[in-house]
């Protein structure tokens, strides 16, 4: 594999749920695959309660936001980048009406010093029973 197109995986972030890396470096840009709030080594999702069939019975968007931001940080740092190097963030929420205000407040805490471009969209469902997922682009110095 050439150094200008390097696949990268974090030892701290949750394992991908499909055939894709956590991130791919192209030149000095780092493209992250979609990152959710799951914990590494388990199917546990912080802030989510599931019924026996795996359906969401309740969730805490604040807990999920903090967990997903931590997972993004793990991937960035393990790839040789940092939170301050984020330049573009796409956020997928499954419930814009109920979750946007809380997510936006927490986002402002985490991004008060670095303000990347941001797009937030609502989707009807994500691949695992989560309420938020981030897709990010960062630079690598």
Automatic annotation (TrEMBL):
InterPro entries in UniProt: RutC-like_sf (IPR035959), YjgF/YER057c/UK114 (IPR006175)
Coiled coil segments of this chain: none
Name of the featured protein: Reactive intermediate/imine deaminase
Organism: Pontibacter amylolyticus
